[in-house]
Design goal:
Blueprint lengths: L7 H17 L5 H8 L3 H13 L3 E4 L5 E4 L1 H6 L13 E3 L2 E2 L4 E7 L9 E7 L10 E4 L8 E10 L4 E10 L8
Antiparallel strand pairs: 1-2, 3-4, 3-7, 5-6, 6-9, 7-8, 8-9
Helix pairs in contact: 1-2, 2-3
């Protein structure tokens, strides 16, 4: 199923739907998705028709209706759908970000002595993060890694923060595994 090629707009809308669905645990209204991705609700309705045709979204009729992502949606975006994922906290300007979980940390330039960057893949929106903001990720479940950095950029479509790493720590004792 992962052979589906989605447009950047479809990826952004589908990612927003998955994030909002995780928060609400119920059908998500098109207006809520439109607000999340800063688009017109009519555009969202049109995109949802094509996502339904691709079997990535199902419509829920009625007053409490809206849209739900299908299992194919998670697969198309390569998002892990776990019942109880390990929680990796995220702090933005010293405040814990609720409804966000760190899915992956990619260290992209550890070989550069003065400038180390990391890509932080989130389950949750990166919309409220801006260049220059302070971010702390972790501790991670096994290694207890904590990454402190400054936002250098972001990818709203894929929910990725690009951090310039200021500090990384992990305890020197044996990890718990």
């Amino acid at each position: 199923m992962s052979s589906i090629e989605l447009t950047p707009s479809q990826k952004q809308i589908l990612t927003a739907l998955i994030n909002l669905y995780r928060q609400a645990e119920d059908a998500v209204k098109g207006e809520d998705i439109a607000a999340e991705v800063n688009r017109n609700p009519g555009t969202i309705r049109n995109q949802m028709q094509s996502l339904k045709a691709l079997q990535l979204v199902e419509g829920v009729p009625g007053p409490k209706g809206g849209y739900k992502p299908t299992a194919n949606a998670y697969e198309a975006l390569d998002v892990q759908e776990m019942d109880e994922p390990a929680t990796v906290p995220l702090f933005h300007e010293g405040e814990r970000v609720e409804n966000a979980n760190v899915e992956e940390i990619d260290l992209s330039s550890v070989h550069h002595p003065e400038l180390c960057r990391a890509e932080i893949h989130l389950q949750g929106s990166v919309r409220n993060f801006h260049e220059g903001d302070s971010v702390v990720v972790g501790p991670t479940p096994l290694s207890k890694l904590v990454v402190e950095g400054t936002v250098d950029g972001k990818d709203d479509t894929s929910n990725i923060l690009i951090l310039r790493i200021d500090d990384m720590t992990a305890p020197a004792e044996e990890p718990e595994h």
